[in-house]
Amino acid sequence: xxxxxxxxxxxxxxxxxxxxxxxxxxxxxxxxxxxxxxxxxxxxxxxxxxxxxxxxxxxxxxxxxxxxxxxxxxxxxxxxxxxxxxxxxxxxxxxxxxxxxxxxxxxxxxxx
Amino acid sequence: xxxxxxxxxxxxxxxxxxxxxxxxxxxxxxxxxxxxxxxxxxxxxxxxxxxxxxxxxxxxxxxxxxxxxxxxxxxxxxxxxxxxxxxxxxxxxxxxxxxxxxxxxxxxxxxxxxxx
Lengths: 112, 116
What we know:
The structure holds 2 protein chains of 2 kinds. Chain A is mainly beta. Chain A is built from no helices and 12 strands. Chain A has strands at 3-6, 11-14, 19-21, 23-26, 32-38, 44-50, 56-59, 62-65, 75-77, 86-93, 101-102, 106-111. In chain A, the strands form 3 sheets. In chain A, strands 2, 5, 6, 10, 11 and 12 form a 6-stranded mixed sheet that branches. A 4-stranded antiparallel sheet of chain A has the order 3-9-8-7, with no helix packed on it. In chain A, strands 1-4 form a two-stranded antiparallel sheet. In chain B, strands 2, 4, 5, 6, 9, 10 and 11 form a 7-stranded mixed sheet that branches. A 4-stranded antiparallel sheet of chain B has the order 1-3-8-7, with no helix packed on it. In chain B, 35% of the residues are buried. Chains A and B meet through strand 5, strand 6 and strand 11 of A and strand 5, strand 9 and strand 10 of B.
């Protein structure tokens, strides 16, 4: 079946450090891939998405590239800020699916 | 303001109580979802409604009973829950027809449920 695997957290970084959160997926066909972010006390918000192989999603300095050959969608940011502290979820929607399948989430904590 | 509003934000109930969670979306979407978020576990899809019709029930116990009276409102009725049902329940919506089908889900802020 379809599934998403994210790196275990928490990830603790200093401000301006480089961030990578790994995400790999298992799915048939060509799923759409998403990164969502959840700030404390809030619901999930879409951060970025990619709908086909080699697409790069980007938003707020975050980027992720849809790699079909490695079934990956790793999240990166060149210089994190304290305000980026949140839980990040990788997700996929299969070609035929109506719902998103999420990973367990990775907690990011950025200190000044 | 996310466009998806959930009430109550916090709920504490005993195992014999009956309560309901409410979700309302102001985005004109036609599909609505309930997800359960527990600590250390992936978000679990519970139910999907499309144009008021239930299209997915992800093997959810019958003590959770969804209701979708129209495309803008979704309820989750709770009855004789167990302590392990304590979690954050998230509602989401999406447009599934027409030229703006991005696949993106819009989430509410969740209802934090504690079962004693």
